[in-house]
């Protein structure tokens, strides 16, 4: 079965992508793997129509804002299971990944056997998360529900809006007419219940990650 599988890896570290590709090759020999290294490349890959069976996302790619890559992937392809691969192992980060729609979460410090267990479970239609110590957050649940109302294109516009881009800058970056961006912004504000662009930007900041001291970017032992 694995020779028919198509996997998407989204991570900006080439060495970690290589390690992840090797580990996945042990679990799913023959599976096809596509790699991307930024939020914009992820958007293009997910929106491109290729029938991926599983996406594996880092939360800290260029252009991403916290859980924005996860929210976009789930909004564009709700049938595509997503496993977060992150060096941020904070219990609330894991819980929030679950609330924003991930099917699994594997710390980058985990051995390859754990990755294999998680991937096998998710491909079988299950979920896989480390033991959780953080409680469900109703604010995150409400934010996820509000963002779920947006179309994939509106999510793209919202993320650029949150970065402080003007309509003409968003139009240029997304190859849209400026009037189309204005229409999207109006719809976004209405759906999110916001009265201004600033209010919408503050709302998106809720996707940001908590900082965790000690070893967040240490991937030296990952997937060994």
From TrEMBL:
Domain HTH luxR-type: 143-208
SUPFAM superfamilies named among the record's database cross-references: C-terminal effector domain of the bipartite response regulators, CheY-like
Residue(s) carrying 4-aspartylphosphate: 58
Keyword Transcription in record: no
Domain of life: Bacteria
Domain Response regulatory residues, every copy: 6-123
UniProt entry keywords in alphabetical sequence: DNA-binding, Phosphoprotein
Protein name according to UniProt: Response regulator transcription factor
Source species: Lysobacter firmicutimachus
């Amino acid at each position: 079965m694995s020779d028919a599988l198509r996997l998407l890896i989204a991570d900006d570290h080439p060495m970690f992508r290589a390690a992840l590709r090797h580990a996945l090759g042990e679990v799913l020999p023959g599976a096809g793997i596509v790699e991307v290294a930024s939020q914009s490349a992820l958007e293009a890959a997910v929106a491109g129509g290729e029938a991926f069976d599983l996406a594996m996302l880092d939360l800290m790619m260029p252009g991403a804002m916290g859980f924005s890559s996860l929210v976009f992937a789930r909004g564009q392809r709700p049938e595509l299971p997503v496993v977060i691969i992150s060096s941020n192992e904070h219990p609330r980060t894991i819980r929030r990944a679950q609330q924003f729609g991930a099917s699994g979460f594997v710390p980058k410090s985990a051995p390859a056997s754990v990755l294999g267990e998680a991937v096998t479970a998710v491909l079988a239609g299950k979920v896989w998360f480390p033991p959780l110590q953080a409680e469900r957050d109703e604010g995150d649940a409400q934010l996820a529900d509000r963002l779920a109302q947006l179309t994939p294109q509106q999510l793209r516009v919202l993320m650029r809006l949150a970065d402080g881009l003007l309509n003409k800058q968003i139009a240029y970056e997304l190859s849209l007419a400026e009037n189309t961006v204005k229409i999207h912004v109006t719809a976004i504000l209405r759906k999110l219940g916001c009265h201004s662009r600033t209010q919408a930007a503050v709302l998106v900041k809720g996707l940001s990650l908590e900082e965790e001291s000690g070893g967040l970017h240490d991937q030296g032992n990952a997937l060994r």
